[in-house]
Amino acid sequence: MRKLLTALTLALVAAPVSAALKPGARAPNFVTIGAIGGKPFKLDLSEQLRHGPVVLYFYPKAFTSGCTLEAHAFSVAIPDFTKAGARVIGMSADNLETLKKFSVEACRNAFPVATADKKVIKAYDVAIPVVGLSNRTSYVIAKDGRIVMVHSEMDWKDHVTKSLAAVRALKR
């Protein structure tokens, strides 16, 4: 297991990160399953957008150090996102059982995480070649379904602040 995690970590660090979807593009709609507070739910992006902007952030693998730190950082900032009228949704290729646990332990019941299948990963152009996981990319999607901000960087540290700034800019 340790060798697999080491190989995965090396692949993630070496993988180029770039998102093809640019600001102004229409965000691809999808329906998938996810979890919040350990409870499963159906996630429909178009339904989420009816309530306001959405921060859709992709991460490689639940319970890896960077992904856990990023989820915690988003959970701490949820009151700020809520005040700005936005919802946060984490996306990964993890299965539902893993997401149920991650939604409680890392996301601290503050926001949902959902399964990004190969089709969603391809539609958002966030695939890490060969390993079948998504890279670390955050999209801010306006209520009208248009992407207003993209931050694609394997280091998790700026994803929350850049996403929150973009959401706040929408309110101005």
Summarize the structure.
By secondary structure, this protein is an alpha/beta fold. It is 38% helix and 22% strand.
Write up what this structure looks like.
There is one protein chain. The chain has 172 residues and is α/β, with parallel strands linked by helices. The protein has one domain: Glutaredoxin. Helices cover 38% and strands 22% of the residues. It contains 6 helices and 7 strands. A 7-stranded mixed beta sheet has the order 2-1-5-4-3-6-7. α3 (65-83) packs parallel to α6 (159-171). It is globular. The N and C termini lie far apart (48 Å). Residues 1-16 have low confidence and may be disordered.
Strand line-up in the sheet with most strands: 2-1-5-4-3-6-7
Which spans of ≥5 residues are poorly predicted at pLDDT below 50?
1-16
Mean pLDDT metric:
91
Instruction: Supply the number of helical segments.
Output: 6
According to CATH, the fold-level topology is Glutaredoxin
Number of strands: 7
Q: Bin the strand percentage.
A: 15-25%
Helical coverage, percent range: 25-40%
Judging from the principal axes of the Cα atoms, what is the shape?
globular
How is the quaternary structure best described? Answer: single chain
Topology:
Blueprint: H1 2-14, E1 31-36, E2 39-44, H2 45-49, E3 54-58, H3 65-83, E4 87-92, H4 96-105, E5 113-115, H5 118-123, E6 137-141, E7 147-152, H6 159-171
Parallel strand pairs: 3-4, 4-5
Antiparallel strand pairs: 1-2, 1-5, 3-6, 6-7
Helix pairs in contact: 3-6
From the structure above, extract its key features.
172 residues; 38% helix; globular
